[in-house]
Design a protein that fits this description.
Number of helices: 3
Radius of gyration: 19 Å
Shape: globular
Order of helices and strands: EEEEHEEEEEHEEEEEEEEEEEEEEHEE
Organism: Phyllostomus discolor (pale spear-nosed bat)
Protein name: RCC1 domain-containing protein 1 isoform X5
Largest sheet: 7 strands, antiparallel
Structural class: mainly beta
Oligomer: single chain
InterPro entries: RCC1/BLIP-II, RCC1_domain-containing, Reg_chr_condens
Length: 378
């Protein structure tokens, strides 16, 4: 009988506001450390990091992770994350503090914290709530909207699990709108855009539709939209350079974007290849704009299945369960035990040395969180 393999979240990078991030010593953690979310014995099942605080969603443990090797399909990877049925607790760590029960998803930004929460009252549906991060989740939210049952049912039919994880925030259940940290908070999407995932960068947005096509819009002054120019796009525009190559994942960073297909990894904007200098204001040693998507090769012919972008760094999980990071590394957010920036993808040896298999990754602007399980021994 296969041994049960529980997973854990690991964190590294900036923790200058006291964010739960490994040991949390000083302002940074330069090598992966087990995540310690204070005040809860429940299992952390998702992480959303902003610059000065992090939101953790935790639920009670309710059974083993399926035995056997990790799935290779990006959508099936979600089944390896701890996601027992029912709502859990959102806990804030860092410059924002507080906790709330009855939550199913959370998305953090500096100006807004959005939670998908069980409705108030018998028979009530789920409710989307937008809070000021400094509110400690007390009092009344800035904005609230009931999620119609039809939207929840559509998500359950189109994705795995209970529907709240197949299309994570900021994309709203039903995939007809998303939440923005800037006014207006509620932003409808055109009916013809059948969104599967939506990612918000600092100035731009990426949308992945049901057919695997990618749309981008927002600020484009760093080439992060991938349309070959540095112009802004007010509305979602199809990324024509990737037509005919269905994508499985998208990730939006501060100034760059990354897309994952079944056959490779591509990116556009500065920081995709090459370091981007010092975010503290010092001149960059090299800022290379990449306004068209460029194919990115991982070492050893590795295939990427998951990706996440920070402000100026990128992290990907491979089909073999390895983690590669590159970009700006001033606060240890690359996880290599130092604060050196790296021009090209470099494997994080911690997980190899500890016989851990990376399953999911979530980048904050200046830090990185990774979910990993123990590798099976032959």
């Amino acid at each position: 009988m296969a041994e049960e393999r529980r997973g854990s979240w690991f964190g590294f990078g900036f923790c200058g506001f006291g964010q739960a991030l490994g040991s949390g010593r000083g302002r940074q953690v330069t090598s992966p450390e087990p995540l310690r979310a204070a005040g809860t014995d429940a299992e952390v099942c998702s992480v959303s990091a902003s610059w000065s605080y992090t939101a953790f969603l935790s639920r009670e443990r309710s059974g083993p992770i399926p035995p056997g090797p990790a799935p290779t399909c990006p959508r099936l990877l979600l089944s390896w994350l701890p996601a027992p049925a029912g709502a859990g607790q959102v806990q804030l760590s860092g410059s924002a503090r507080g906790a709330a029960e009855g939550c199913r998803d959370a998305w953090a930004s500096e100006t807004l914290l959005v939670v998908l929460r069980d409705g108030r009252g018998p028979g009530a549906g789920a409710e989307l709530q937008a809070w000021a991060p400094g509110s400690a989740l007390c009092g009344e939210p800035l904005w609230a909207q009931t999620v119609v049952p039809e939207a929840q049912r559509e998500d359950r039919e189109d994705g795995e699990g209970d529907g709240t994880r197949a299309r994570p925030l900021p994309l709203l259940p039903g995939a007809r709108a998303y939440v923005s940290p800037l006014s207006p908070l509620y932003r409808p999407l055109a009916p013809e855009l059948r969104a599967r995932r939506l990612e918000l960068g600092t100035e731009h947005a990426l949308l992945l539709d049901e057919a695997g096509q990618v749309y981008s819009w927002g600020g484009g002054r760093h080439g992060q939209l991938g349309h070959g120019t540095l112009e802004a796009e007010p509305e979602p525009r199809l990324l024509e350079a990737l037509q005919g190559l269905p994508m499985a994942e998208v990730a939006a960073g501060g100034w760059h974007s990354v897309c994952v297909s079944a056959t490779g990894l591509s990116g556009h904007g500065p920081g995709v290849t090459g370091t981007t200098g010092d975010e503290g204001g010092a001149p960059a040693s090299c800022i290379a704009l990449q306004p068209f998507p460029a194919l990115l090769d991982l070492p050893l012919g590795s295939d990427a299945v998951k990706a996440s972008c920070g402000s100026r760094h990128t992290a990907v999980v491979t089909r073999a369960g390895e983690l590669y990071t590159w970009g700006w590394g001033k606060y240890g957010q690359l996880g290599h035990g130092d604060t050196t920036s790296r021009d090209w993808p470099c494997r994080v040896e911690y997980f190899v040395d500890k016989q851990l298999q990376a399953v999911a990754v979530s980048c904050g602007p200046w830090n990185t969180y990774v979910y990993a399980v123990q590798r099976e021994t032959s």
